[in-house]
Amino acid sequence: MTKKSSVCMGTLVTQRVYGVFAHRAIECCQRLFESLESEMSVFVPSSDIFMLNASAGKGPVKISPRSVEVLELAQRVSVLSSGAFDVTAGAFVNLWRTALAENRVPDASEIAVTSRLVDYRKLVLDSKHSTAHLKIPGQSVDLGGIAKGYAARLARETYQTYGVKSAVLDLGGAVLFVGRRARSSEWVAGIQHPAKERGACFACVSVVDKCVVTSGGYERYQLHDGIRYHHIIDPSTGYPSNSDLVSCSIVSHDPVWADALSTACFVLGSERAIHLVESIEDTHLILLTSNNEVYVSPSLRDSLRLLDADMRLI
Ligand code: FAD
Ligand code: MG
User: Fold this and answer.
1) In angstroms, what is the span from residue 82 Cα to ligand 1's centroid?
2) Per residue in 215-259, pLDDT tens?
3) Main-chain dihedrals φ then ψ at residue 148, nearest 5 degrees
4) Are residues 129 and 190 in the same domain?
5) Domain end (from 93, 114, 134)
6) Residues whose CB is less than 8 angstroms from the CB of residue 284 and which lie 6 or more positions away in sequence, other chains included
């Protein structure tokens, strides 16, 4: 097994790869992650997404076919989740980032003004000409909830190219399990306990060739006046999502759907999340509510093990 860790896309990325060409596959994926970051980060002034945001309300910008593809996927999830995931949530993300950096929370008028900018229907994509356009000045796309899944999807293709049959790629909350573990056994994916130290899990699930992505408000947040403000915004309120969920994991073969749906379902809350996921093929969920109740898709029940005696499996 060859292992490599690096910091990319604002998170720790770890690859554990088996096979003769593991080293070459790892280096190729590392270059892939770096190129995706330079194309899709809102923090890189030359990126496609930065330029798209800077041109909001002005006109279409030419971007890479990959960026168009991710934006299309993000828009599809926005439609599917009725805007719980909104590809244009960037305006809220920026508002909260700026306000909290100034040690304050946004006031109601700022939220109201910003809410007019958050509308995925105002993103116009043209895959033929590889362009994108945000119709309203001040609109902002943020791919933080989906681009790591896209990176995992392309990484899986890279591993295949190098004949890798077994690998684990951890993109900070999004974990891709390629094939099976050695000796034909299944991988065991741990689900982070929201109230315990990093690496402590409240449940684990056995998987083969799946991606497991978890969204929650317990890791990336800022305190203000003793209140936690986390990074996933409910576009219907403009405030950090306040559903009944503490943690939301999606298990799917497709890392893109797993990533975007984990963010969407966290916002939707247990009832609407279960309803949404039931309608999508090869998508399964593990939800933890603030009442310590764990919901799991029937299809995962036999492969899930609850590790916390204080939690109840529903
Ligand atoms: P997820 O639940 O998967 O996504 C939450 C993120 O999605 C939020 O952080 C926000 O960006 C966005 N979001 C919030 N609400 C919504 C909503 N309702 N609908 C849609 N999207 C929403 N972070 C840094 O600190 N520094 C960096 O340099 C940096 N570079 C990055 C480059 C790239 C290409 C990407 C994809 C991310 C980068 N990040 C950076 C962001 C960081 O990695 C994010 O915190 C991370 O993507 C959030 O992932 P998550 O798994 O914690 O949460
Ligand atoms: Mg996500």
Assistant:
1) 20
2) 999 989 999 999 999 999 999 999 999 999 999 999 999 999 999
3) -70, -35
4) no
5) 134
6) 250, 251, 252, 277, 296, 297, 299, 300
2-40: burial string, b at 16+ Cβ within 10 Å, e else: beeeeebbebebebbbbbeebebbbeebbebbeebbebb
pLDDT digits over 152-195, tens only? 999 999 999 999 999 999 999 899 999 998 777 999 999 999 99
The number of domains in the chain is: 2
Q: Is the CB of 177 under 6 A from ligand 1?
A: no
Q: If you ran DSSP here, which 8-state letter would residue 209 be given?
A: S
Is the beta carbon of 43 within 6 A of some atom in ligand 1? Answer: yes
Region for residue 174 given its phi and psi (left: phi exceeds 0; alpha: psi -120 to 50; beta: otherwise): beta
Contact present, 40 and 67 (Cβ < 8 Å): yes
Same domain flag for 198 and 112 = no
In terms of residue numbers, what domain contains 75? 48-134
